[in-house]
Amino acid sequence: MLTQAPKGTKDTLPMNIEKWQSVEKKFHEVCRAFGFSEIRTPMIEHTELFARGVGDTSDIVQKQMYTFEDYGGRSITLRPEGTAGVARAFIENKLYADVLPAKLWYEVSCFRYEKPQSGRLREFHQFGIECFGATDMVADAEVIALADTFLKSLSTPSLELHINSIGCPTCRPIYKEALKAFLKPKYDALCDTCKSRYETNPLRILDCKSPVCQELTQGAPHMLDYLCDECADAFDSLQKNLEAYGVAYKVDPGIVRGLDYYTKTAFEFVTNAIGAQGTVCGGGRYDNLIEELGGPAVPGVGFGLGIERLLLLLETVGADAERTHDTDVLFVVMGEAAKRKALSLLPLLRAEGLSAETDIVGRSLKNQFKHADRIGAKYAAVIGDEELTSETITLKDLITGEQTKTAMDGFAKYIQRKVTGQEV
Ligand code: ATP
Ligand code: MG
């Protein structure tokens, strides 16, 4: 137990960190290109926020939350998703009084008590987008285009965008009744979870992972046939906007999303390359969330993108991560005076923007060279007695094997030019 991480959690070790950093860097770049700014909110929130914001009848609130009482007797929950906390921050900090839309992005860890399996963890991470204050379907198209641009930049060919509309409080109740009427004769065969969903949230039955329920919902009526004029026009606009941007999509009446606060647009980027947990990104519009949480009537649209699932997909398609760390120079030192000389030179190299290291475990000369190879250093800068006397450095290019002598004085600038490929 002591040396085992809790079930459903994972360490990200240094040898895997580049994969994370390269998708993080890409996401930041794409968000910037679309004019979104980062927001950071606490990992814990009051439990009521999720009960209200995610919905009492959702699987998340009913059986997946990590909730505890703190020493002050308050009920606190580790965030199971990003939207509720960002919506709370938007209201609490009165961001609605600033220029709208508020275009926000975040990267968060989320906690859900689920059955761990490939692509399903108890602590996982999401990139998220929230755009508050825009009703026009151009906003939905921009949010979807952001996800599309990001995913395409990583070369994930097997991902498909599926879109749907789940209507609004005007048209959805009528559809719900039609769906219930369709499911009524099949009620007894539904799984226990779906039996309870039948009254509280029948739409979610369409999203059930059980093969029996999936079979039973074949031929169910589609929300798209029940949309009110406003929602139908919006869905039409959304499709035209996506076409204008050049984002390929498929209309999929099966996309209902797990969360209660969605209105109109619902979308997912799905793949069948990583097994059963194939939804990499899911999102949509939630025009009533901010008001539901006690804020003004401000509409919203956004998405959550599971980073572990994305990395799983990238691994499956064999995409290489961009390398984010290389050692430029390793000082190879012999003797106390040489060690100290290296210590005095290191800050100068680092100030030039180089990645520079020295031996800190007392390796032999031979092993210092071996270590340089192991960490993929570009240059070994050797300092021994002779170098100290002549105030030089023996520089070995570890890629070509070429060895030269150079003056200690001005070494940082000299090596910086060499590393960046400038004339020296
Ligand atoms: P699923 O249907 O797979 O359970 P969900 O509808 O619960 O997904 P959302 O709440 O919309 O998922 O979260 C957005 C994204 O976060 C998902 O599309 C997925 O990529 C990721 N995600 C959700 N739950 C997990 C989990 N337990 N482990 C890893 N990633 C997850
Ligand atoms: Mg889920």
What is the compact description of this entry?
The chain is of the alpha+beta class. 37% of the residues lie in helices and 20% in strands.
Explain how this protein is built.
There is one protein chain. This protein is of the alpha+beta class and 424 residues long. The chain has two domains: 14-171 and 227-316, 2-Layer Sandwich (BirA Bifunctional Protein, domain 2), CATH 3.30.930; 329-419, Anticodon-binding domain (Rossmann fold, 3-Layer(aba) Sandwich). It is 37% helix and 20% strand. It contains 15 helices and 16 strands. The strands form three sheets. Strands 1-5-6-11-10-9-7-8 form an eight-stranded mixed beta sheet. Strands 13-12-14-15-16 form a five-stranded mixed beta sheet, sandwiched between helices. Strand 12, helix 12 (336-351) and strand 13 (356-358) form a beta-alpha-beta unit. The longest helix is centred in the first third of the chain and has 17 residues, at 17-33. The chain starts with 16 loop residues before the first helix and ends in a 5-residue tail after the last helix. The structure holds adenosine-5'-triphosphate and magnesium ion. Adenosine-5'-triphosphate (ATP) is lined by residues 81, 112, 114, 119-121, 124, 126, 258, 277, 279-282, 304, 306, 308-309. Adenosine-5'-triphosphate binds next to strand 6, strand 10, strand 11 and helix 11.
